Records
---
Amino acid sequence: MHQILTAFGGAFLASLGFGVLFNIQQKPKLFFAGLNGAIGGAVYEFLLANHVSSLAANFLSAIVFTCAAEVLARKMKAPVTAFIVCALIPLVPGGTMYDMMIEIITNDPYEALVLFLETLTVAGVLALGILIVETITRLIYTGTIKWREYEKNRQARID
Amino acid sequence: MVENKIEIEQLLDTVVRAGNLLMSSGAEVYRVEDTMNRISRSFPEVQNVQSYVTATGIIVSITMDGITRTHIARVKDRNVNIDTIDQINELSRRCCKSSLSIEQIDAELDRIAVQKRYSFLVTTLFGAIGALGFAIFFNGNLDEIIAAFFIGIAIRCLNWSLNHLKINDFLNNLLCAMLAAWMAVEIHSFDPKASINVMVISSIMLLVPGLAITNAIRDTMATDYLSGLARGAEAFLCATAIAIGAGFVLYIWR
């Protein structure tokens, strides 16, 4: 529990900092961007604490924070990217990249290669999670518009 | 006839400018193409629009009265500015709802282009807070958290001044990573409780091209392969610079 809370707080501060670096201007948007990052970080840490593999944890937390970002973007009238980008930052595999570099300078290229692949897969899995949610929301969105048009046409025909 | 010709040139200028602003603010390729098409189509005279956007350049053709004109623009700046993306999005939505004139759109773009970013002090402070947040996220102890804050300030200052000297990104990241690693080593020798790993990772996260990596993959999946590769190369170069910089210092001091 303690770990999840620290992850929540840390991810909040990190996302907030990056929100300012990425120039999000309004304060409420900034706050919610940070909060979204905190949600992503906390979910990630929670899954890790429940013995989920690191890849799956990254994937699931990407799905969770992208869903939250879609909702927030519609409520706050901001592009979805604003919230996704900030929430993504704490999950970026910077630590793995650092370990890879350490392996290279301590002359262990095989271990470095393994870590390089891990960095790539984690980045890919994060992008995949984001992409899946975005595709599904777009489907739902266009689907409802089409459905409404269809209903309207049908009503007109009946009238 | 002559009037129409002027108008098509003007419209192209405006549309390309909007696209350029978006692209240099770190928007995705599909969003840039979509916005340019929307703005052009909001004029009823326009018969056809084709836009082709890559991470480094923009090509737009507009057909009006059977005449097609094409503009090309090179995208040079590359930073992240979500506020600009937000406002241009809003502008294109307004274009679709109530057709604005070219002059109005131009005036709006002028306003958006010169809009102020957060000041140096604020970005430095929040960059440092970000580094502090990472130190907490990576389970650092109190000493490491405080150290990460100050390393973050130093990195932001160096980054900012190198940016103003127009030094390229590769060298910029390399020097910043060197500074971070060197400061971490020094702090560790003062205070052995603070581990180098946590300090370096959490301060280096400020430089890691996380956005570029993910944008590259997203562009690739949206079938914009060229931009995906370009952004991937950018991210790879950036990551290499950081690894070389930090690795070099750690190798010497080890």
---
Amino acid sequence: MSTMSRTQHIIPSGIIFAVGGWITWISYTQEPAEAFLFPRLISTAFVLLAGWTFVKALLGWSKIGSGITRSMAINLFPGLVISLIYVFWAAKALGFYTASAIGFFVLLSLYDPAPHSEMKSWIKRGVITACFVAVMYGVFAMLLKVYTPREILF
Amino acid sequence: MEFIYYFGNVFEPVAFMLLLVGTIGGLILGATPGLSPTMAVALLIPFTFHLEAVQGLILLGAAYTSTVAGGAVSAILLKIPGAPANIATTLDGHTMAKKGEGAKALQLSFLASAVGGVFGVLLLIFLTPLLAQWALAFGPSHLFWLAILGVTIIGSLDSASVVKGLLSGCIGLWLATIGFDDIMGAQRFIFHDSLGGGINIIAALIGLFAIPQVLTMFAKGRQGDGVEVITVQKHSIKDAIKILLGSKRAMAIGTSVGSIIGLIPGVGGQIAGLVAYDQSKKFSPDREKFGTGHPEGVIAAESANNAMVGPSLVPLLTLSIPGSPTAAVLLGGLLIHGIFPGSDLFDNHPDVAWTFINSMLIGQVLMCIFGLYVAGLAAKVAQVPQSVMAAVVLGLSVFGAYSVQSSMGDVYVMMSLGVMMFFLERFGFSAAPLVLGLILGPIAEANFIQGSMIASATDGVGSYFLSGGLNIILIGTVVASIIYSVVMELRQHRITNTPNEETQV
């Protein structure tokens, strides 16, 4: 196992161990104690298992999982960032349908294997986006009567 | 024979229409690579809020059944299993399609799925009431251990690493404690306003199953699908039925293996299909033909993965222990309608329980009929570029999570859990035990607290939870499932003795 792949196992297992330690500390220190009876039980098992996973990663015994390759990370990064912006900011700030239309079109354009130089493929992406937003509006706003936050445009 | 009284309910207009929609939609979703049955059912749950409990369950049950069968379409025509349950189908199904026998393979796959599926649902019909009555004997300590058993059994059997599987279960159990404590009203682990009401199960299910798929599609980048699609030529259904009738051994093996595996909590359709394929090959006089486009390979694999569906609901409907990740999502669907599995379901909501089970029986027949006609359309849908699929699933996830309680908090929770699960999966953690922990956590805690109160007034906590025949059997099963998985993991490690593919950033 290479140093880098060991690091890949150490980082997530270290984070989980830290979270486990933190919730165990909270479970045993917060009051009222009766409310934390079950969390104490769970967090004890959590921190023991997380500790063992972390030790295995440190010793280089962690073999399960394929990790993240450089090309995978490069491919993933823009889509992940746009998704996070869409969910955590745009959906509320611009409204669901406006944000969905923009987010859908940008993601589609980023990952569509069709060439970016052709006008035809841009039109196709626009049409697919319009159809998607229309279907979402039809299903959620009209059929299921889900009232989404007020839109920036309407 | 109580179930017969409720057959008519399935044919009420709305119920039957939902059964049709679920079946046809499930076939198409199942054929789409990347959309697993679990994810399809999770994404459908928000659509059931406005339906009556039984109608919602009919929709979810039909989708569950037909997504498993629909996965055979892309397995046969594109060599891409629509779901993990269809991996074994590609072995002979795709070879048959390449030889110009695509239609025959599809017909055999749907016919075998229907026969296996009907057998599995019949098992569900006859076993469930018996087990549900037995479940009446369960007190708080037993229910606590049952919930723990549900998490540990899926954690140890469904994961590549036992420790990581169990840790996933613990993460789920901890997530279930977030929010206000029911008895004292104390705040627990509320780090953000969105968590005030606890973690909504449906939003969590959508996030945990759909978002990792979306991110996996992103991680593949701008690659063209490059899939060779095989044109389906016509083939007589009568001939397919004749072949099926002549393959009784493969049918019997597939159906029995699938049914038995379905009954074991935590063991999914992927294993059912592969084990049935392997056993059919072992017992067949034509074993050398397996892998070269032999119809028996398709029949064994497909009858097994659909025979697994019914029995996987037996532990769910009687003991609240889902037999598969999709069954875990169905449990979420039951709970949001205020229906608790077990004897309560059959005593107080027999109309819901039996109409749902009957609909699965009728659904098998509909799945077979429509499967034969929808296969061509499903194969076209299977070619939808991953870029479109990823964006559609992301949008559906956001709207679906929001529609649960019209809360942005649920959307944030959905996305956060989804991104976390994507990275956890890359390091060998599994979503199924985490989901089980999240769903069974409140059941485990409620019974733990109730049991502790009884215990403090009687024999003491240790004696109450650790003694008694049923407690010992349940604790023994928890321990045995963990030991078995550890032994199997060590043996597998020794056999392969080669490190998994380790990659670098």
